[in-house]
Amino acid sequence: MGSILDTNTSPDGVRYATREDIMRALDVQTTARNRRQIDDAIEAASRGVEGLCHRRFAPVLATRYFDWPGRPAASYTPWVLRLDDSELISLTSITSGGISIPLDDVNLEPNRSGPPFSRVEIKLNTSAAYGGGQTYQRDVTITGLWGYRDTETTLGAATAAVGSGTTLTVDGATSAAVGVGSILRVDDERMLVTERAQADTGQTGTLTASKADTTLTVTDGTAFAVDEVLLLDSERVRVDDIAGNTLVVERAYDGTVLAAHTSTPIYAPRALTVTRGALGTTATTHTTGATAYEWQPPGLIHQLVKAEAIWSLLQERSGWFRLASSSGKSAPEVSRVSIDALRDQAYTEYGRKARTRGI
After folding, report:
1. N or C, where is the chain less crowded by C-beta within 10 Å?
2. CB-based contacts of 302: which residues, under 8 Å, 6+ apart?
3. Region 279-284: what's the mean pLDDT?
4. How far apart are CA 265 and CA 216, in angstroms?
Protein backbone atom coordinates (compact mmCIF):
# COMPACT_ATOMS: atom_id res chain seq x y z
CA MET A 1 0.00 0.00 0.00
CA GLY A 2 3.06 2.28 0.23
CA SER A 3 4.06 5.11 -2.07
CA ILE A 4 7.05 5.64 -4.35
CA LEU A 5 9.02 8.88 -4.15
CA ASP A 6 11.38 10.03 -6.89
CA THR A 7 14.81 10.29 -5.26
CA ASN A 8 15.39 13.62 -6.97
CA THR A 9 12.68 15.15 -4.77
CA SER A 10 13.74 13.52 -1.51
CA PRO A 11 13.96 15.99 1.39
CA ASP A 12 17.13 14.33 2.74
CA GLY A 13 19.54 17.06 3.82
CA VAL A 14 16.78 19.42 4.96
CA ARG A 15 17.63 20.94 8.32
CA TYR A 16 15.22 22.20 10.95
CA ALA A 17 17.66 24.70 12.49
CA THR A 18 20.36 26.91 11.02
CA ARG A 19 24.07 27.16 11.68
CA GLU A 20 23.51 30.66 13.01
CA ASP A 21 20.93 29.38 15.54
CA ILE A 22 23.57 27.16 17.12
CA MET A 23 26.36 29.70 16.96
CA ARG A 24 24.24 32.30 18.74
CA ALA A 25 23.24 29.81 21.41
CA LEU A 26 26.84 28.72 22.06
CA ASP A 27 28.33 32.18 21.44
CA VAL A 28 31.11 30.73 19.28
CA GLN A 29 33.19 32.47 16.66
CA THR A 30 32.91 31.68 12.97
CA THR A 31 35.70 29.43 11.73
CA ALA A 32 35.87 26.91 8.90
CA ARG A 33 36.44 24.13 11.46
CA ASN A 34 33.43 24.79 13.67
CA ARG A 35 31.16 25.46 10.70
CA ARG A 36 31.53 21.86 9.58
CA GLN A 37 31.07 20.51 13.10
CA ILE A 38 27.90 22.53 13.59
CA ASP A 39 26.49 21.56 10.21
CA ASP A 40 27.12 17.87 10.93
CA ALA A 41 25.42 18.16 14.33
CA ILE A 42 22.35 19.87 12.86
CA GLU A 43 22.12 17.28 10.08
CA ALA A 44 22.26 14.41 12.58
CA ALA A 45 19.76 16.10 14.90
CA SER A 46 17.31 16.75 12.04
CA ARG A 47 17.40 13.13 10.90
CA GLY A 48 17.05 11.96 14.49
CA VAL A 49 13.94 14.08 15.05
CA GLU A 50 12.39 12.74 11.84
CA GLY A 51 13.03 9.22 13.13
CA LEU A 52 11.53 10.08 16.51
CA CYS A 53 8.35 11.50 15.01
CA HIS A 54 8.11 9.07 12.03
CA ARG A 55 7.53 11.93 9.63
CA ARG A 56 9.26 14.52 7.50
CA PHE A 57 8.17 18.10 7.91
CA ALA A 58 9.52 20.07 4.93
CA PRO A 59 7.27 20.65 1.88
CA VAL A 60 8.18 18.55 -1.17
CA LEU A 61 6.57 18.90 -4.59
CA ALA A 62 6.35 15.40 -6.04
CA THR A 63 4.33 12.76 -7.85
CA ARG A 64 3.65 9.57 -5.89
CA TYR A 65 1.92 6.30 -6.76
CA PHE A 66 -0.52 4.24 -4.71
CA ASP A 67 -2.45 0.98 -4.96
CA TRP A 68 -6.15 1.63 -5.43
CA PRO A 69 -8.26 0.65 -2.41
CA GLY A 70 -11.08 -1.17 -4.21
CA ARG A 71 -10.23 -4.72 -3.14
CA PRO A 72 -12.85 -6.55 -1.02
CA ALA A 73 -11.82 -6.78 2.60
CA ALA A 74 -13.36 -6.77 6.04
CA SER A 75 -13.42 -2.96 5.99
CA TYR A 76 -14.49 -2.32 2.39
CA THR A 77 -14.25 1.43 1.68
CA PRO A 78 -13.26 1.72 -1.99
CA TRP A 79 -13.72 5.50 -1.97
CA VAL A 80 -11.02 6.02 0.70
CA LEU A 81 -7.35 6.16 -0.30
CA ARG A 82 -5.06 6.10 2.73
CA LEU A 83 -1.75 7.81 2.12
CA ASP A 84 0.06 6.00 4.95
CA ASP A 85 3.49 7.61 5.50
CA SER A 86 2.98 10.10 2.64
CA GLU A 87 1.29 13.13 4.18
CA LEU A 88 -0.26 15.66 1.82
CA ILE A 89 -0.28 19.44 2.23
CA SER A 90 -2.10 20.34 -0.99
CA LEU A 91 -3.30 18.49 -4.07
CA THR A 92 -2.39 19.44 -7.65
CA SER A 93 -3.79 16.50 -9.63
CA ILE A 94 -4.98 12.92 -9.16
CA THR A 95 -5.57 10.13 -11.69
CA SER A 96 -6.69 6.52 -11.37
CA GLY A 97 -6.29 3.98 -14.15
CA GLY A 98 -4.94 6.81 -16.27
CA ILE A 99 -8.20 8.79 -15.92
CA SER A 100 -8.07 12.21 -14.32
CA ILE A 101 -10.27 12.72 -11.27
CA PRO A 102 -11.54 16.33 -10.90
CA LEU A 103 -10.26 17.95 -7.73
CA ASP A 104 -13.82 19.00 -6.90
CA ASP A 105 -14.74 15.31 -6.70
CA VAL A 106 -12.44 14.50 -3.78
CA ASN A 107 -12.13 15.47 -0.13
CA LEU A 108 -8.82 15.81 1.71
CA GLU A 109 -9.11 14.36 5.21
CA PRO A 110 -9.03 14.95 8.09
CA ASN A 111 -10.55 18.29 7.12
CA ARG A 112 -10.79 19.60 10.70
CA SER A 113 -7.10 19.31 11.49
CA GLY A 114 -5.28 19.07 8.17
CA PRO A 115 -2.91 19.73 6.70
CA PRO A 116 -1.28 17.36 6.82
CA PHE A 117 -3.88 15.16 5.14
CA SER A 118 -3.65 11.38 5.46
CA ARG A 119 -6.59 10.39 3.21
CA VAL A 120 -8.00 11.32 -0.19
CA GLU A 121 -11.67 10.37 -0.34
CA ILE A 122 -13.92 10.29 -3.39
CA LYS A 123 -17.12 12.29 -2.80
CA LEU A 124 -19.96 9.80 -2.71
CA ASN A 125 -22.32 12.13 -4.62
CA THR A 126 -20.05 12.07 -7.72
CA SER A 127 -19.39 9.50 -10.43
CA ALA A 128 -15.64 9.49 -9.77
CA ALA A 129 -14.01 6.26 -8.60
CA TYR A 130 -10.66 4.66 -7.95
CA GLY A 131 -9.60 1.78 -10.21
CA GLY A 132 -9.99 1.16 -13.90
CA GLY A 133 -6.43 0.17 -14.63
CA GLN A 134 -5.20 -3.30 -15.60
CA THR A 135 -4.03 -3.86 -12.03
CA TYR A 136 -4.61 -2.22 -8.67
CA GLN A 137 -0.84 -1.82 -8.19
CA ARG A 138 0.24 1.83 -8.48
CA ASP A 139 -3.07 2.58 -10.13
CA VAL A 140 -3.49 5.96 -8.43
CA THR A 141 -1.12 8.82 -9.26
CA ILE A 142 -1.09 11.91 -7.06
CA THR A 143 0.85 15.10 -7.69
CA GLY A 144 0.94 17.62 -4.88
CA LEU A 145 2.85 19.23 -2.06
CA TRP A 146 3.83 16.60 0.50
CA GLY A 147 5.00 17.10 4.05
CA TYR A 148 3.70 18.37 7.36
CA ARG A 149 2.76 21.99 6.73
CA ASP A 150 3.78 24.85 4.44
CA THR A 151 4.23 27.73 6.90
CA GLU A 152 6.26 30.64 5.51
CA THR A 153 7.49 34.04 6.63
CA THR A 154 7.89 36.95 4.21
CA LEU A 155 11.53 38.05 4.38
CA GLY A 156 12.38 40.67 1.80
CA ALA A 157 13.41 41.09 -1.78
CA ALA A 158 16.13 39.77 -4.05
CA THR A 159 18.40 42.71 -4.86
CA ALA A 160 19.72 41.17 -8.06
CA ALA A 161 18.17 39.04 -10.77
CA VAL A 162 18.68 35.28 -10.41
CA GLY A 163 19.41 33.35 -13.59
CA SER A 164 21.18 30.01 -13.81
CA GLY A 165 23.70 30.68 -11.03
CA THR A 166 23.72 29.49 -7.43
CA THR A 167 23.96 32.88 -5.71
CA LEU A 168 20.93 34.75 -4.40
CA THR A 169 21.66 38.31 -3.31
CA VAL A 170 19.16 39.60 -0.76
CA ASP A 171 18.45 42.74 1.26
CA GLY A 172 19.23 43.50 4.89
CA ALA A 173 15.99 42.16 6.33
CA THR A 174 16.50 38.80 4.64
CA SER A 175 20.19 38.69 5.59
CA ALA A 176 19.36 39.15 9.27
CA ALA A 177 16.73 36.42 9.30
CA VAL A 178 18.27 33.74 7.08
CA GLY A 179 20.97 31.25 8.03
CA VAL A 180 22.77 28.31 6.52
CA GLY A 181 20.11 25.60 6.41
CA SER A 182 17.17 27.89 5.70
CA ILE A 183 14.61 26.87 3.07
CA LEU A 184 13.71 29.82 0.85
CA ARG A 185 11.09 30.24 -1.83
CA VAL A 186 11.25 32.80 -4.62
CA ASP A 187 8.24 32.66 -6.95
CA ASP A 188 7.59 28.89 -7.32
CA GLU A 189 11.18 27.76 -6.77
CA ARG A 190 12.52 26.53 -3.44
CA MET A 191 16.18 26.87 -2.52
CA LEU A 192 18.35 25.52 0.29
CA VAL A 193 20.87 27.98 1.74
CA THR A 194 24.25 26.21 1.94
CA GLU A 195 26.58 29.16 2.62
CA ARG A 196 26.69 32.93 3.03
CA ALA A 197 29.25 35.41 1.66
CA GLN A 198 29.89 39.12 2.08
CA ALA A 199 28.35 41.56 -0.39
CA ASP A 200 28.97 45.28 -0.70
CA THR A 201 26.00 47.23 0.68
CA GLY A 202 26.99 50.30 -1.34
CA GLN A 203 27.29 52.41 1.83
CA THR A 204 30.22 53.51 3.98
CA GLY A 205 30.73 54.17 7.68
CA THR A 206 33.10 55.80 10.16
CA LEU A 207 33.91 54.52 13.64
CA THR A 208 36.69 55.20 16.14
CA ALA A 209 38.74 52.46 17.78
CA SER A 210 36.64 52.65 20.95
CA LYS A 211 34.30 49.99 22.30
CA ALA A 212 32.07 52.84 23.48
CA ASP A 213 31.67 54.21 19.95
CA THR A 214 28.54 52.30 18.98
CA THR A 215 26.92 54.82 16.61
CA LEU A 216 27.36 54.08 12.93
CA THR A 217 25.90 56.73 10.62
CA VAL A 218 24.90 55.55 7.15
CA THR A 219 23.28 57.09 4.11
CA ASP A 220 20.13 54.96 4.22
CA GLY A 221 19.21 53.22 7.45
CA THR A 222 16.26 51.43 5.84
CA ALA A 223 18.72 49.24 3.91
CA PHE A 224 19.78 47.52 7.15
CA ALA A 225 18.01 45.39 9.75
CA VAL A 226 18.36 44.69 13.48
CA ASP A 227 20.55 41.60 14.12
CA GLU A 228 22.35 41.92 10.79
CA VAL A 229 26.10 41.49 11.15
CA LEU A 230 28.15 44.00 9.16
CA LEU A 231 31.82 43.96 8.16
CA LEU A 232 34.02 47.07 8.12
CA ASP A 233 37.60 46.20 7.15
CA SER A 234 38.18 43.11 9.32
CA GLU A 235 35.88 44.09 12.21
CA ARG A 236 32.36 42.72 12.49
CA VAL A 237 29.63 44.76 14.14
CA ARG A 238 26.10 43.63 15.01
CA VAL A 239 23.17 45.97 14.47
CA ASP A 240 21.25 46.22 17.77
CA ASP A 241 18.96 49.14 16.92
CA ILE A 242 18.18 51.55 14.10
CA ALA A 243 17.07 55.18 14.40
CA GLY A 244 16.69 56.84 11.03
CA ASN A 245 20.10 56.67 9.37
CA THR A 246 21.89 55.82 12.63
CA LEU A 247 22.76 52.23 13.46
CA VAL A 248 23.45 51.30 17.07
CA VAL A 249 26.00 48.50 16.89
CA GLU A 250 27.85 46.00 19.07
CA ARG A 251 31.55 46.50 18.34
CA ALA A 252 34.20 43.79 17.78
CA TYR A 253 31.49 41.19 17.37
CA ASP A 254 32.21 37.50 16.90
CA GLY A 255 35.77 37.75 18.26
CA THR A 256 36.99 40.26 15.69
CA VAL A 257 39.46 43.02 16.55
CA LEU A 258 38.31 46.53 17.45
CA ALA A 259 39.65 49.09 14.94
CA ALA A 260 39.11 52.59 13.55
CA HIS A 261 37.27 52.99 10.24
CA THR A 262 37.04 56.10 8.08
CA SER A 263 34.50 56.16 5.25
CA THR A 264 34.95 52.41 5.06
CA PRO A 265 32.80 50.34 2.70
CA ILE A 266 30.21 48.34 4.65
CA TYR A 267 29.78 44.68 3.75
CA ALA A 268 27.07 42.27 4.90
CA PRO A 269 26.52 38.50 4.38
CA ARG A 270 23.83 39.02 1.77
CA ALA A 271 25.21 36.80 -1.01
CA LEU A 272 23.59 33.43 -0.32
CA THR A 273 24.90 30.26 -1.92
CA VAL A 274 21.85 28.13 -2.62
CA THR A 275 20.89 24.76 -3.98
CA ARG A 276 18.56 25.58 -6.84
CA GLY A 277 15.33 23.78 -7.67
CA ALA A 278 15.19 22.08 -4.28
CA LEU A 279 12.40 19.91 -2.87
CA GLY A 280 10.91 19.01 -6.23
CA THR A 281 10.73 22.52 -7.67
CA THR A 282 12.36 23.74 -10.89
CA ALA A 283 15.14 26.32 -11.13
CA THR A 284 13.96 29.34 -13.07
CA THR A 285 14.80 33.00 -13.61
CA HIS A 286 13.75 35.56 -11.00
CA THR A 287 13.71 39.32 -11.46
CA THR A 288 15.20 41.94 -9.19
CA GLY A 289 12.76 42.72 -6.39
CA ALA A 290 11.15 39.26 -6.33
CA THR A 291 9.94 38.49 -2.81
CA ALA A 292 11.80 35.85 -0.79
CA TYR A 293 9.93 33.66 1.70
CA GLU A 294 11.38 31.38 4.38
CA TRP A 295 9.78 28.08 5.38
CA GLN A 296 9.30 27.76 9.14
CA PRO A 297 9.55 24.34 10.83
CA PRO A 298 7.16 23.67 13.73
CA GLY A 299 8.37 25.48 16.84
CA LEU A 300 8.93 22.40 19.01
CA ILE A 301 10.79 20.64 16.20
CA HIS A 302 13.02 23.67 15.73
CA GLN A 303 13.78 23.83 19.45
CA LEU A 304 14.47 20.11 19.74
CA VAL A 305 16.89 20.09 16.79
CA LYS A 306 18.77 23.00 18.33
CA ALA A 307 18.92 21.26 21.71
CA GLU A 308 20.09 17.95 20.22
CA ALA A 309 22.75 19.67 18.08
CA ILE A 310 24.08 21.70 21.03
CA TRP A 311 24.13 18.60 23.24
CA SER A 312 26.07 16.69 20.57
CA LEU A 313 28.65 19.48 20.19
CA LEU A 314 29.18 19.78 23.94
CA GLN A 315 29.55 16.02 24.29
CA GLU A 316 32.04 15.94 21.41
CA ARG A 317 34.14 18.61 23.09
CA SER A 318 34.16 16.64 26.33
CA GLY A 319 35.16 13.42 24.58
CA TRP A 320 31.68 12.00 25.27
CA PHE A 321 32.39 11.90 28.99
CA ARG A 322 30.12 13.35 31.65
CA LEU A 323 31.30 16.85 32.62
CA ALA A 324 31.39 17.79 36.30
CA SER A 325 30.36 21.19 37.58
CA SER A 326 32.06 23.04 40.45
CA SER A 327 29.54 21.50 42.84
CA GLY A 328 30.63 18.02 41.81
CA LYS A 329 27.39 17.30 40.00
CA SER A 330 27.13 16.52 36.33
CA ALA A 331 26.42 19.83 34.59
CA PRO A 332 25.18 18.40 31.25
CA GLU A 333 22.88 15.97 33.07
CA VAL A 334 20.46 18.82 33.70
CA SER A 335 20.48 19.58 29.97
CA ARG A 336 19.93 15.90 29.18
CA VAL A 337 16.85 15.82 31.37
CA SER A 338 15.58 18.98 29.68
CA ILE A 339 16.17 17.48 26.24
CA ASP A 340 14.35 14.28 27.21
CA ALA A 341 11.36 16.35 28.30
CA LEU A 342 11.51 18.31 25.05
CA ARG A 343 11.67 15.08 23.05
CA ASP A 344 8.63 13.71 24.86
CA GLN A 345 6.76 16.94 24.22
CA ALA A 346 7.70 16.99 20.52
CA TYR A 347 6.68 13.35 20.08
CA THR A 348 3.37 13.93 21.83
CA GLU A 349 2.62 16.92 19.61
CA TYR A 350 4.06 15.83 16.26
CA GLY A 351 4.85 12.12 16.42
CA ARG A 352 2.94 9.71 14.21
CA LYS A 353 1.86 6.90 16.49
CA ALA A 354 2.28 4.28 13.75
CA ARG A 355 5.25 3.97 11.44
CA THR A 356 3.16 3.31 8.33
CA ARG A 357 -0.47 4.26 8.82
CA GLY A 358 -1.34 7.50 10.62
CA ILE A 359 -4.18 7.59 13.12
Report:
1. C
2. 16, 17, 21, 296
3. 94
4. 12
